[in-house]
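Our platform keeps sequence and structure together, in a single record for each protein. Such a record has a labelled line for the sequence and another for the backbone structure tokens. Nothing more is needed to write down the fold, since each code stands for a local backbone conformation. For reference, a complete record is included directly beneath this paragraph:
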Amino acid sequence: MKRYVIDVVRDGDLFVIRVPELDGTHGLVGEAITQARRVGDVEMEARDYICTVTGEEPSRVTIRERLV
């Protein structure tokens, strides 16, 4: 099981999700960022993004949200 801490910031109508642990890794340049339209979608969007970038199975990823 791999645990990721995500930073969540409200930006207008969106919630911007940053995964600091993935910044500059897996071929990414700069910050690892995605977004969600609703706060209830943050974890799902973050998990999908992390799994797409890393190739991890969703069942192997846990997330802790940090509101910034």
Observations:
- The radius of gyration is 11 Å.
